Amino acid sequence: MDKKYTKKTKWHEETQMDQLSDLPDSLLHHILSFMDAKYAVQTCILSKRWVSVWTHLPVLKLDSKFFNRVGNFRSFISQVLDHFETSNILTLSICSPKKNLGSSLVDKIISFAVSHSVQELDLSLRYAIVDLQNIFSCQSLRVLKLDLICYLPLPNAISLASLKTLILCKVSLKSENKCFDLFSSCLDLQNLVLDHVFLIISDIFNISAPALVNLTISNIGFRVAKDASITNYASIEYQKVVITAPRLTSFSFTRYGPVSLSMDNSPLLENVNLSMFNYDLPYTQEEGSFMFLIDMLRQLGNARSLTVSLGLVKFLSQHSRLVEEQPFPFSKLESLKVLKGRQSHKKIPPNVLNFLVQGSPMAKEILTKFQKKRRMCKQPMDD
């Protein structure tokens, strides 16, 4: 019985394999693209039909979590890049957040991406020294994601004509240009995310992108250089940030406090998400923070949907007298949400609520939603 069962099972598996091998290359490439390269490469032992299938994948993903030793992972990456045959790759993703790959291998990865016309490059690396000039010469890039724990010297501008999405995470960027305007040459850039980015610059931080639609700035830090060498610098709380994005519809900002924001010509702005003051500031910073916050709100006055953190609401309520003296910042507001986090709070102080919504002709129709995960409660406007 066991022998018959074994033969039957083996025949069934071989039949299934034959059926899979009969599929066209394009379909096999699509299936293998969902795998990490470690397992896609292992298919080469199945039969002669599979020997070179993996070398033409449109999506190449390599993750260090599938390797016990960093040396093995480095060697595997190098061999995969050496034996890859297709000249055009849609996506190259390399993830090694806990293991240092070394500068020579990182250079090889970037050169490979450029020479193979990669459209989406996703690098999540630990303490990598990356030559951004080489990356910024890759004109085929449509999506660029860099999650790197490192300092990066910057060129004057990023000139990527096809780039639509740029995500920078956990990087420190240094520039000697007095007017820091990195994105102005990315004429097709639509989505920009700056997450835990630390900037060492000499003056104003400019975000100028004519096609930009979605902008997310999260936990960004600034230091302003005192001289051109960028070796002598001082911290600054209220960095001047100038945003020029005529097509911007969504803006999300997360930080312990505000910046000195100037937003020129964003008439299409719809959604604004502000998360600030989620922990207490030193007393000496509070009054300055209040005025910069008020100015930020005015700059975002075209928003139709506003989401704020409970910390921001509490900060405004602690300055009730000053709030009542300010003009209403939002003239088109239709929706207001408050993110509670873990805190329990179900009502905004009336003067703070009036300040946020009374400038809108729909003030009496706006319902304030307190959102904690999926639970919500609603507070109508007071008459």
Describe the secondary structure blueprint for this structure.
Layout: H1 2-21, H2 25-32, H3 37-42, E1 59-63, H4 70-83, E2 91-96, H5 103-115, E3 120-125, H6 132-135, E4 143-153, E5 165-174, E6 179-181, E7 191-195, E8 198-201, E9 204-208, E10 214-218, E11 221-225, E12 233-235, E13 240-244, E14 250-254, E15 260-264, E16 271-275, H7 283-299, E17 305-309, H8 310-317, H9 320-324, E18 335-339, H10 350-357, E19 367-372, E20 375-380
Parallel strand pairs: 1-2, 2-3, 3-4, 4-5, 5-7, 5-8, 6-9, 7-10, 8-11, 9-13, 10-14, 13-15, 14-16, 16-17, 17-18, 18-19
Antiparallel strand pairs: 11-12, 19-20
Helix pairs in contact: 4-5
> Secondary-structure element sequence?
HHHEHEHEHEEEEEEEEEEEEEHEHHEHEE
What is the residue-averaged pLDDT?
82
Poorly predicted regions: 227-235, 373-383
Query: What multimeric state do the chains show?
Result: single chain
Largest sheet: 16 strands, mixed
Helix content: 25-40%
User: Rg, please?
Assistant: 26 Å
Rough shape?
elongated
Q: Specify the number of helices.
A: 10
Distance between the termini: 83 Å
Structural class: alpha/beta
Strand content bin:
25-35%
Number of strands: 20
Descriptive account of the structure:
The protein is of the alpha/beta class and 383 residues long. Helices cover 27% and strands 29% of the residues. The protein is built from 10 helices and 20 strands. The strands form 2 sheets. It has a 16-stranded mixed β-sheet that branches. A 4-stranded parallel β-sheet has the order 6-9-13-15. α4 packs parallel to α5. The C terminus is likely disordered.
